[in-house]
Design goal:
Helices cover 68% and strands 0% of the residues. The termini are far apart.
Length: 191
């Protein structure tokens, strides 16, 4: 019988908070059970295991992230929308390192069709369509943005930028460069 007060959603919320405090990799079922003062086995009434918990964490954090991004890009277009998207992404990654790490895990294909993932595609593709991109270029552009944003945020969070130049100034130049790249996306003949 499930323990009163515990649910899959409550466990995921506690897990993302724990991830922000101690690191995503330190969130275990045992640590979560200790947090709630229950035995590990009692969590299995709510989640199938660590992979299920981490998937729930990814979806919760992904929903938070994309809603921040959506709020930032609303009513904007072009470089302004790209900058708002980028800034919301960076702020979330730096403010919530454990939650952000959860958004980077690979999730099962059946979960990839969730409402959170659909919202992410809607907002991100909406931004990129304003640059006139269509598939397969949309997918390539998403990968470009994700790689640039994730790489920068990971390096920044880890203290990887030692040069005296202001990090924010570099961020803004990268957004400018990405805007130019998106505006001048290379075209190739359709096969």
């Amino acid at each position: 019988m499930p323990r009163a007060g515990l649910s899959a959603d409550r466990l995921a919320e506690a897990a993302v908070a724990m991830a922000d405090e101690t690191g995503f990799e330190n969130v275990t079922l045992s640590a979560l059970a200790r947090h709630f003062g229950v035995k590990d086995a009692s969590l299995y009434s709510h989640v199938k295991g660590l992979r299920d918990l981490r998937t729930r964490m990814a979806l919760l954090a992904g929903a938070e992230l994309i809603e921040r991004i959506a709020a930032g890009v609303a009513g904007r277009s072009g470089r302004d929308a790209l900058a708002a998207y980028a800034d919301a992404y960076r702020a979330y990654a730096l403010q919530h390192p454990g939650r952000y790490a959860a958004t980077q895990i690979r999730i099962d294909q059946d979960v990839a069709t969730s409402p959170v993932m659909a919202r992410t595609v809607e907002v991100t593709y909406g931004l990129l369509r304003t640059y006139g991109l269509e598939e397969p270029d949309l997918t390539d552009a998403v990968r470009l943005l994700r790689s640039a944003f994730h790489g920068f945020c990971s390096l920044e969070a880890g203290g990887g930028f030692g040069a005296p130049r202001d990090v924010r100034a570099s961020w803004e130049r990268i957004v400018d460069a990405l805007h130019v790249a998106l505006e001048n996306w290379p075209t190739r003949p359709r096969a």
